[in-house]
Automatic annotation (TrEMBL), chains A, B, C, D:
Enzyme active site: C151
Single annotated GO MF: N-acetyl-gamma-glutamyl-phosphate reductase activity
EC class (word): oxidoreductase
InterPro entries attached to this UniProt entry: AGPR, AGPR_AS, AGPR_dimerisation_dom, AGPR_type-1, NAD(P)-bd_dom_sf, Semialdehyde_DH_NAD-bd
Gene field: argC
Pathway: Amino-acid biosynthesis; L-arginine biosynthesis; N(2)-acetyl-L-ornithine from L-glutamate: step 3/4
Residue ranges constituting the Semialdehyde dehydrogenase NAD-binding domain according to the UniProt record: 5-143
GO CC field: cytoplasm
Pfam family, one: Semialdhyde_dh
Name used for this protein in its record: N-acetyl-gamma-glutamyl-phosphate reductase
Amino acid sequence: MSKKKIGIIGATGYTGSELARILLHHPEVEIAAITSESRKGERFSEVHPFFRGLIDQELISINEIENMDLDLVFLALPHGVSMDFVKEHAADPYPIIDLSGDFRLDTPEIYEAWYNKEHVYKEGFENAAYGIPELFRKDIRRKKLIANPGCYPTSAILGLAPLAKEGLIEPNVVVDSKSGTTGAGVKAKAATHFPNVNDNFRAYGVKSHRHTIEIEDTLNKIGDAPLTVQFTPHLLPVDRGIVSTIYSRPRPGVDVSQIGDIYEAYYKDEPFVRLTDQPPAIKDVRGTNYCDIYSTYDERTNNFITISAIDNLVKGAAGQAVQNMNLIFGWDEILGLQQVPMNP
Amino acid sequence: MSKKKIGIIGATGYTGSELARILLHHPEVEIAAITSESRKGERFSEVHPFFRGLIDQELISINEIENMDLDLVFLALPHGVSMDFVKEHAADPYPIIDLSGDFRLDTPEIYEAWYNKEHVYKEGFENAAYGIPELFRKDIRRKKLIANPGCYPTSAILGLAPLAKEGLIEPNVVVDSKSGTTGAGVKAKAATHFPNVNDNFRAYGVKSHRHTIEIEDTLNKIGDAPLTVQFTPHLLPVDRGIVSTIYSRPRPGVDVSQIGDIYEAYYKDEPFVRLTDQPPAIKDVRGTNYCDIYSTYDERTNNFITISAIDNLVKGAAGQAVQNMNLIFGWDEILGLQQVPMNP
Amino acid sequence: MSKKKIGIIGATGYTGSELARILLHHPEVEIAAITSESRKGERFSEVHPFFRGLIDQELISINEIENMDLDLVFLALPHGVSMDFVKEHAADPYPIIDLSGDFRLDTPEIYEAWYNKEHVYKEGFENAAYGIPELFRKDIRRKKLIANPGCYPTSAILGLAPLAKEGLIEPNVVVDSKSGTTGAGVKAKAATHFPNVNDNFRAYGVKSHRHTIEIEDTLNKIGDAPLTVQFTPHLLPVDRGIVSTIYSRPRPGVDVSQIGDIYEAYYKDEPFVRLTDQPPAIKDVRGTNYCDIYSTYDERTNNFITISAIDNLVKGAAGQAVQNMNLIFGWDEILGLQQVPMNP
Amino acid sequence: MSKKKIGIIGATGYTGSELARILLHHPEVEIAAITSESRKGERFSEVHPFFRGLIDQELISINEIENMDLDLVFLALPHGVSMDFVKEHAADPYPIIDLSGDFRLDTPEIYEAWYNKEHVYKEGFENAAYGIPELFRKDIRRKKLIANPGCYPTSAILGLAPLAKEGLIEPNVVVDSKSGTTGAGVKAKAATHFPNVNDNFRAYGVKSHRHTIEIEDTLNKIGDAPLTVQFTPHLLPVDRGIVSTIYSRPRPGVDVSQIGDIYEAYYKDEPFVRLTDQPPAIKDVRGTNYCDIYSTYDERTNNFITISAIDNLVKGAAGQAVQNMNLIFGWDEILGLQQVPMNP
């Protein structure tokens, strides 16, 4: 049987090159088109020289995909740009997996409040599935537009889902996250200038980071009791990876000794969630679609502590997008995603 | 007037070399003795080649300090070794500033519970001052034994003191700390092997780190209402520095809008605490005795968020020890401690 | 057809885990045995937790492989230990690919001079093929013992081979190499303690590094005119990767304008050598079996400058070993080795 | 006696902030003016928040220095901008120490050839002293314009000077240099984007870097025999520091066993050159004005190998500039420059 023809819309960023890295060896697809408006006409391997000899195909304009008979497209575009594509191509037959934040939130109003931007395609919200397969597998399978989750939200939501789902915790939750620098994108700016990051560490976006609402929104969809999330991101002097350290408190009457079993039951059939007996490190998951989760209860303080680790470019972006594609096409979810962690 | 004669007991570790770095240019002291049992007879600059031409004096045995007429000694010894020195030298006339954890806690019983070790000099506890000048200046001035604080506790306690002192917060506090690798000491081990740390990140000591009790103990000394601290340390791929992100909740009735003023009032005369309007970064304080603190209130979640940054080897160890020495001798507290942050 | 049964002798080091990473997805082999004397009885994923769920098989003792009917073994053992294995198993039917330095040099005498160690199996030398496929493909195919090359030598030899083969250069060659820290092995020691490597850089082994003779020996096997190599290794604050900057001078009469063509002709059919028009970076090859090579001639100085980049754990160790295995079994040389560079 | 009034022209870059770091504690000067056209009106500590509480003075425009009666100015301006300042202020009474490359080369013609830029103040060349005190102390003392050397040239020239001075080496010299990222300046660009540098390494500017001619020019001023320098810079994933590994060959008849004595004799009275018996590391000199030099002869290859290490922002820029100022004012050369290396 012939392979599915895939388009990657947006080639120059990290999600674009990471999609290419994963899709290149996916047994059921071929990368039929990679687009870039700023670099069209150049080879993909001119933009990303490490692909020399691996992907030398020419970058095309977005306008050229019309007649290509694509089976699915990934949008590796910035926030605010994806919505234009989705709007214009809403009638096209292929499913769209959007890696931006444009369709992740509950309503256009919430989007506009947290993204400070008018949304041009409000109709998209009701048709979009939020693409965390572990939580919304059924919905993903039947939707044509997938809002691929943010990197921080993926780590926080997978860490909290078992507790939120069962309504086991008090409403006030702390998510203290630390991310590698690729999360800030491919564009050079002062915040990611090497001497500003190397041997350094700081928090940013305190109280105001957009992923706050994405985490809250999603947890409140799966659980009964509304949670309020205090989310604080920090910039690590590493390339990839997110560790989220999550603090919550059991509701009165909850059998805290069951925390291990709760996670076990929730994730027992998930190929990409590994429960660990030690706090997971970034390099345990680097380059892979795994989310490693450690959870424990502290009797002395009456807190649950949950620690999750993902690769922000894989489970936090391109890998999860491919997992969603596998779901959409009814394939084994792990196709193309069996990388071994790069450690060291 | 002649300079005070100072002894550094323990030369091979980071606190030893950092004390030397600071004391070398202190205008009122001379480094009269540096001891090392394992390297005695060698020059200090053979152990630390970067001191070549700066400190080439010979390392001596601890036994040789008896007749040296020292004015003060710093103990840069491991936990469990310091107590032996203090016991044997309790009758000596010079003040001792102990950089280990041996006399920091409230009682020998608490020590033995958290350090898993019998304490050989229980009498030391009542005579020791806990050496955070910003909190215990008066006590430090009149004691002969200073328990120089742990690095994590310094960052957490300075961050929380204004809130704890005034009894403004609920008992359950989260301290999520991230430290550079020098905090783990000079000895090579798997946990600090370069490929295990570089481009990596992880939590450790969850629920059980000894600094937990040091933080709690101290905060409960200065405040009315007992606090319980959930302390989680993490290992950063950086050399120096600690950032602590601290989450607490105001007690009912507290005027949360005053948080800025509370910190301002508490620290307004402190030369080494700088209040910032942005989350501080490690490199803002690297190489210096500063503790930079940012604090804010999140209306949406009803949480206080406080973020502090120190250099673990300076304000978290050798610098604070020198600050304590300055207090003991009645000097200006900033003598020898006016380094400019090394950035980048 | 059934898969070949492979043994990995020595599981705890970086070459062991890297072999496992590559062989796990090799379509024609199964990892039948992984041995470790110090950790036998434990799971492979207990020693390397990032393999959790991927390779959970039990580590066995080397003594247990006798009756396993293995088709090939890789020796991921330290220098000086491999030779014992080879000696004892010389009569066994399976080919051995030895990743140590024990059989790389020309004669036992040279070995003993540079390794300061008596060699227990001198007979091995004449039966061993030096495992750089690009140079010795034919020899590798017909030998039962492969001396897998050192990491630095691989980078230097592939960089110089086209010039050495044709006798185009003067005898005095400078190889200035810079390596990631994994090259120093998995064992924690002062030289690889994080604070000694991070944000730091230095040369080591000046004039005396053992790889000097391996480079010279090999180049002199393929070329007419003897070369003398000044090899200086340096330790980079990175995990993986070697960049070698190589300086040589054309012999009188050599047509220096042909340097590009010479490399092109020499490597045109090699799947793992990529010629570049810019100096290659470590991340261009990280995680892969590629050797990227840039070469140029400087008219002003009359020097050739050649720069090569490899991943020391892949093309410099485990990947090249798998490439040699592919040759031995007559498979396509790229089987199992099609990883895309991990960048970033 | 009153302190000398110093101006720093250009505040936003690394040389500007590093000058401020050093001058702040210089006992004989006060920082009377710091200029910035882009940030004038802001405080210095707004541009560099780590100076909060240390240097909070307001940045002024370059136009405002006219009536300030400055005693000396440092130009921390980009190449091509400095020359304008020097031209306009040539008649002003104060000495100028220019940290750019605008007056370092022998003639305007050479400048224009290597910098691809017309020079607007050709008269400046004959009046400028090249500011390496170890080589040109007398000249520096009597000139009013100091061309402060480039960072790479400082490391290369100090490494080679003893050999070049005495005419001991063959003309063809290889300088293989590795530099921290601050050498590329404060401005964020793709080449210094964190994920492009971290865990990575590469050469750049092969055959064409401007510092090539600065090294050659200067060495040829002090020695009898003309040298040709093959200079290859590489970008290290570190903040600060340069290590240059230098390869040269003795002329026939040279007594190679004397290499140690030659360096010893040449540098014996220099406060900032330390000769070492091991290859120096960046952290041995970080934050200081030291140049550590190791030199050796390899009998096997008949090469001299010299390795030098400096901090590119100190001995390679601001520190050497202050050393030049000390010379100009007839002060002890080490004033303000006694920092202890920051290690780790």
